[in-house]
Amino acid sequence: MTRFDVVALDADDTLWHNETLFTATQTQFRALLARFRDPEFIDRRLYETETHNLRHFGYGIKGFTLSMIETAIELTDGAVTGAEVQRLIDLGREMLQAPVELLDGVAETVEALAERYRLVLVTKGDLFDQESKLARSRVGHHFSAVEIVSEKDARTYAAVMARQRVAPERFVMVGNSLKSDVLPVLEAGAAAVHIPYHVTWQHEHVTDEALVGKEFARLASIRELPAWLEGG
Amino acid sequence: MTRFDVVALDADDTLWHNETLFTATQTQFRALLARFRDPEFIDRRLYETETHNLRHFGYGIKGFTLSMIETAIELTDGAVTGAEVQRLIDLGREMLQAPVELLDGVAETVEALAERYRLVLVTKGDLFDQESKLARSRVGHHFSAVEIVSEKDARTYAAVMARQRVAPERFVMVGNSLKSDVLPVLEAGAAAVHIPYHVTWQHEHVTDEALVGKEFARLASIRELPAWLEGG
What we know:
Shape of chain A: elongated
Oligomer: homodimer
Number of strands of chain A: 6
Structural class of chain A: alpha/beta
Helix content of chain A: 40-55%
Strand content of chain A: 5-15%
Order of helices and strands of chain A: EHHHHHEHEHEHEEH
CATH superfamily of the largest domain in chain A: HAD superfamily/HAD-like
Largest interface: A-B, 36 and 36 residues
Number of domains of chain A: 2
């Protein structure tokens, strides 16, 4: 017995590793600028530039790459070389081509879930990049719909449920971000399951206060999801 | 009497001006590099870089901006300055923020069409940027669905028609690009209307041979579309 028809899954850091890719690139970025500034300062300025640029560029690797270039110009007072800027573009391109590594348990769990539920992928980020990752992931064929969205707020989830013709009571969202995969889903009247990833992008952090009175499940691994759904 | 249920419309250079924005930016790009190379050479190298990068970056302004930076580094043998690279990023950001200018006749025609047909917007490019333009366009509310796709081929159109639950015989696509809005639509078994824009991005050009034996309508302005649909 289950009370859900549609199980929606986040992609980055829920199905496949993603934040670790950004972390690894950021390490190289710090090394490139090490002669100009200390690592903490570089990290802080990059994050500030990224945050400022989100409203223009949205989420994704291309915007991140432009933010790295802009930060490098600023931190070096324009002394960054053409070769170094080219290195940053190459880092971005390497991220876009990086192999898609599924998290432990994803392949078998998604396959099992697809037999009992309508699966919908709901992810933000760059359309082209996310489609490319899904195509390479080998789990794409288990999803009956793919929703790549520019922002994950309650309105977005309401629109997804409307398009999928499912009532909020029959919809559950599963993901690693409290800010994007849990809180707005609860606000839209549906259920949410949080499966934390070992690193969280600073932009996705939420305060403890934001969680007061919120009801959602937290699982250690996607392997626990089928049993939770059956019992839920 | 009409034989169509769904009228699908392209966005860039069909609903609003777009290519002119790229053309204007490219003029500034040439000026920035004028001391290194002649205009024709700059244009050719930029187009080659763009084309090469499409497979990594997809369509859109962020990818175009990264291609401008990469071309500038290459053409100057790395001598481009940080300030000049920053100028290119600023040009990209200005493009993303540029006002959305509807083509002549679009506002009233889209409004009139919405009363008789289910309108679907089908556009490629950057998800974030296209959503932002649609929101600013003031015609977004006339569309019952928005499909932002990474590539416009016959498979894409078949998927759009399946999602919209419409048979190919009841679907017509309208746009300025023979390559993206006409030929793949005919291949998918639906009808197509070509409304040329006064400039076409080189990447969208098709040969005369590709058009041999193809049946589609060509209109001078979107203003002629309602009458064509009624007579069709």
